[in-house]
Amino acid sequence: MKTKKWLMTGTAMLLVIGLLAGCSGNNANQNNTDGSTNAEGGNKTNAKAVELTFWGDWGGEGQAQFETMVDVFNKSQTKIHVKYVLQQDMITKFLTAATSGGSPDILFWDRWRTSLYAPKNVLHPINEYLERDGISRDDYYEESLKELSLDGNLYGLPLTVDARALFYNKKLLAEAGVEPPKTWDELADAAAKLTKWNGNKLEVAGFSLGDVGLFNMYLQQAGGQMLTEDGKTNFNNDQGKQVLQYWDRMLNQDKVYKVGFEQGLGEGQDAFVTGKLAMQYTGPWMLSTYKKYGKDLDFGIVPPPAGPNGDKASVMGGFGLVIPEGAKHKEESWEFIKWWLANKDNALLWAKTSLNIPGYKPALEDPFFKDDPFWQPFMETLEFAKVRPNHPGYSVMEGDALTPNLQLFQQNKQSIEDTLKKAQDQGDKLLQDNLEVK
Amino acid sequence: MASVRKLERHQARTAYLFITPTMLLFLVFTVIPVIMALYLSFTNYDVLSRKDWVGFDNYRRLLDDQLLWVTFKNVFLYAVIFVPFNIIISLALGILMNRAWRGVKLFRTLNYLPTLTSSVAAATVWIWLLHPEFGLVNGLLSYMGITGPAWVAQTETAMLSIIMVTLWQSVGSNMIIYLAGLQGVPDYLYESARLDGATKVDCFRFITWPQLRPTTFLVSTLSIIGALQLFDQAFVLTQGGPANVTKTPVYLIYQQGFNQLQMGYASAQAFVLAIAILIFSIINMRITKAEESVI
């Protein structure tokens, strides 16, 4: 009888350990099915055309936008036929596909992943193609190329670029009689004037301090850098202190925000839409959502206010297209990427279809961007925006060491000195642990 | 005699035939992957480019991994509160729903409904309910003159919120298990006890509870395993924050394996979690130790 009990416990345990391994098993299955559907698709089209598979994890509207581009490309010539395949959980599937021969030809790529994946030789360098076809690096934001590069190799071209800027509610600012802020001091003053409390209840927050992940941006505005040249954290210093003192001023002295104020509000209840938040940092991806509200939400955008010494900063992000090393038709894949990302008309078509800022600069000369009051502040911001450091452990450091300590600070459970010291110690360790990727 | 043995052999053969598909699937999708994961935990496997034997390096690194131990502390704290409440509430519900009231079936269904909801969807709804300014929970509290906390954003209440939400979602299915257990308690025990003058409390103490021991063992074991593997609700409600107080080992294992591509190290972490679950299951077995078999 006793053995039965053991058997049951043992079985339960096995089920538990199966957790990790089980996941990858499923993915392998999935890939087989994908492979067979691709083969079927190939038979239908022109037998001469080279069939390319383009993986992305954008569904819904994003999928329609990708497919628009793919269709235009397929109609523009007869040699290459591209097919967009939506892959939920794309990166995990790419892991198995990259080594088992089921690799796509073109991959939609979150650029910051490059520093982790490039050293493992799963992405194909495109330097030669770029030189051969005479494509100028100056046509792209240098920072966005930096994020796609490692050790002198370039692994893809930027598809979109984005950066955060300051969104403000025009009506609330006019009522309070304040101008859109240009410096830290102006921002704090404006936030204080815009905030409305009703007893213990915060009715209108002057400015959002909900995203501690923006520390990176504030630090650069104060004249600092997240990492040192040799890959250690670099915020336990005067610049880091300035940022936290500034947050302390807004959060605890002027009380312009309350921790948790925006957490979990869906699109319909977005505090900025409902007029419960007067100013916030966010990116161009919110434009189409906010524009939808038309007259009910009269908002403007300005570049991020400059720090105490006039330093301007924002964090650049965005996506790119890359060619996996396992791709069977690299030349043709490059043709497709070049057509899309190194051609003014096509890059502009993509921008207008998807309402993203394209990575190809000449497309930004178009009045669609240059003369639009919503796009123009982002153009200005992108001129000085910098990408996150190219370190494979950076996101872990930010998420597991810096953010938790900043949250403790925001909730008044930790002093400025302790916050920076602990974030430094824990962060340096995580950077070290995740450094080795070869 | 011979024919009886023949029948038994035949039955045994049929039985093996019926469990073979399940056992094969179990072998292929569970046992073999587990053995492979054990092997991988001694390598620096990254799925893409390397799989070299590194001996006990991964396990040595575990000792120094503060964050992993923080996550273990979090789920232990969670389990210590979650498991007893889970048993008490689902047993109480089971006893209530075991009566032959009119409309009891409706209440059984209502109590079971949360279990049917997807945990991610439910957690999303709970985020709204728990919103500090506009949420229903703090709205009700403010009628009583209490300023409610920012439930999921504050370090003091974040874990409490997760406990509440997961309890709400799991008591329904455990109630069903207890209901089945309660209906298996033979009526004659209660009848003879009543003849001997036993009160309702006595009946519960000396008949219901001991008779339900196998059920309690099942419910507690499942809740312990579930508690230590907490992931989706914690991920949706708080993303492991604030200040790492709701980060769980499974969350960390996933991140280490699939985001940082350190599958070898993630496997080592997973084995530590499995051993922790084994230890707690054994402790649980000792506590609910029965004179008779529990299975």
Automatic annotation (TrEMBL), chain A:
InterPro entries xref list: SBP (IPR006059), SBP_1_CS (IPR006061)
GO cellular component, one term: ATP-binding cassette (ABC) transporter complex, substrate-binding subunit-containing
Keyword annotations from UniProtKB, A to Z: Coiled coil, Signal, Sugar transport, Transport
Coiled coil: 406-433
GO molecular function, one term: maltose binding
Membrane-crossing residue ranges in chain numbering: none
GO annotation terms (biological process): maltodextrin transmembrane transport; maltose transport; transmembrane transport
Signal peptide: 1-28
Family named by the database record: Belongs to the bacterial solute-binding protein 1 family.
Protein name: Multiple sugar transport system substrate-binding protein
Classification of source organism: Bacteria, Bacillati, Bacillota, Bacilli, Bacillales
Automatic annotation (TrEMBL), chain B:
Classification via InterPro entries: ABC_transporter_permease, MetI-like, MetI-like_sf
Keyword terms: Cell membrane, Membrane, Sugar transport, Transmembrane, Transmembrane helix, Transport
Main location: membrane
Membrane topology according to the record: Multi-pass membrane protein
Pfam families, alphabetized: BPD_transp_1 (PF00528)
Native organism: Paenibacillus endophyticus
PANTHER family attached to this UniProt entry: ABC TRANSPORTER PERMEASE PROTEIN (PTHR30193), INNER MEMBRANE ABC TRANSPORTER PERMEASE PROTEIN YCJO (PTHR30193:SF37)
Record-level GO BP terms: transmembrane transport
SUPFAM superfamilies tied to this protein: MalF N-terminal region-like, MetI-like
Annotated family: Belongs to the binding-protein-dependent transport system permease family.
GO cellular component, one term: plasma membrane
PROSITE patterns the record matches: ABC_TM1
Residues covered by the ABC transmembrane type-1 domain: 72-284
Transmembrane segments annotated in the record for this chain: 15-42, 75-97, 109-129, 135-153, 160-180, 263-283
Protein name per UniProt: Multiple sugar transport system permease protein
Subcellular location(s) of the protein: Cell membrane
Superkingdom of origin organism: Bacteria
